[in-house]
Amino acid sequence: MLQLDFHPTGRHFLQIPGPSPVPDRILRAMSLPTIDHRGPEFGALGRKVLGDIGKIFKTQHPVVIYPASGTGAWEAALTNVMSPGDHVLMYETGHFASLWIKMATRLGLRPEVLAWDGVDKDLPHAPSWRRGVQADMIEDRLRRDTERTIKAVCVVHNETSTGVTSDIAAVRKAIDAAGHPALLMVDSISGLAGADLEHDAWGIDVTVSGSQKGLMLPPGISFNAVSPKALEVSKTAKLPRAFWAWDEIIEMNKNGYWPYTPNTNLLYGLSEALDMILGQGLEVVFARHQRWGAGVRAAVQAWGLPIQCADPAVYSPILTGVILPEGVDADAVRTLIYERFDLSLGQGLGKLRGRMFRLGHLGDSNDLTLVAMVAGVEMGLKLSGVPVAGSGVEAIMAHFSAPPANTQAQPRLRVA
Ligand SMILES: *Cc1c(COP(=O)(O)O)cnc(C)c1O
Fold first, then answer.
1. Residue owning the nearest CA to atom 12 of ligand 1
2. What CATH number should be reported for the domain holding residue 271?
């Protein structure tokens, strides 16, 4: 049978927490002809994006751009500053943190894993996957490292598998309080351009990021923001690296070029994204995500379902995880919502598989697309027989229509 009704009309609701919905303006920018990557026009593009990307990371130092997914930039970060067998302290906040830990092991490092080990009644098997990085645990461990064998502390800024945004400045303070020389390495693949991130002010040595989350681009480019200390360490670090090596790229970037063929059309998109984000101002972008997050959480609370993040101080402005009642298959609910309403939600990853789903509130969204997302989820919950306490749709509408919050509404695009 022909499935003519599969992608019926209107837009697909891509509400996974990355890739995020891409603005038309960025898609159009990417449709320009591909140019000579050694020619003068390309140099101007390269210099522009390399000049502006630092404003997003809030750094004066180099930001390396790779034609790779975020996972590539994770590998780049580790291989540029680590040597075989190095001891690294990695904090497990969720699935992405655990994947970075697995990668460190595969690269021949010796990760030591810290995780919150308290009691959680809703998710007894994954208590640390509901909370942020506990900086005091890091401080305590570093103080006990009297031989200074720990070479780096690795943390995830916005844990995309759970919807928890950790306090990175607190981690910096913990390292300083212990007087420890370890590098601070941060995965902000989904945090950047959605939640505040201050590479220089927070004393981060390497920030890893990617294109397809807060930057609103398709997948395919990723980043390492690099501190002078990390650059210095990279000169003597011994893990093998070639494609990922910072030195040649940073050298060629001085004139706006790369040592190999960069992905030209994604860089057109990046240039457009930087104009949009910096044109609005990062503070406006962060306030918008905070407001969206609060609206979506109001809906989840009205349903009476637990939010994956158990600590309100670290709710993510970028996505919200929703735990379903024991015995309900969250993936079956997600599939029903996808098939009936053409709405994609993020699946529960790793230890959370089948127990929860994730609602993305990032990218080219607005109040009404998020109300529609909540409506799709609410209908799907009811169709699946999941009992809900009240209406999430009413709650998010009340949140978005309450004065004075609407003064923070997304500014309209103005023609220059
Ligand atoms: C998306 C994501 C990754 C993985 O990035 P890929 O582009 O899929 O390789 C890693 N960490 C976090 C926190 C992410 O959100």
1. 189
2. 3.40.640.10
